[in-house]
# Entry
Amino acid sequence: LDLNIPHLSYMFSTHILYNHNTNFYFNKQGVDIIAIKIGDPFEMWHAFCHEAGHMFLHCTNQKVMPRDFNLKQEAEAEKFALLLMMPEKLIMRHELYEAQHIANYFNVPINLAMQRIEMLIEQTQIVTYN
# Structure
């Protein structure tokens, strides 16, 4: 499976800065850099996916943005992380229709697998207007 930091950072042309303090994304002179706090391998993977969300979705400096707008961006980055860690195409191809199957296949905690299932359900619901 090519869902790992080295492969995706290569595919995204992104530099990885491993450190002992924090996770963040920044762009320096046109170069995308994701900083990942060294620690638990899953936490590092999750942080990479989250920061990749900021890289692809946002072009603001969170240090100067209103708190509510930052919360919105954090929620978007978290959603992006779930989509990147557990792609729908693989879920469908391997018939991973239960949270435990998704958790086992993608090596993620069951609560994240449940969130991913909820996202799949939400995207299939039909919106009706009165």
Notes: Helices lie at 5-11, 41-57, 67-85, 88-93, 99-106, 110-124. DSSP finds six helices and three strands in the chain. The mean pLDDT is 93. Residues 31 and 83 are 24 Å apart (CA to CA).
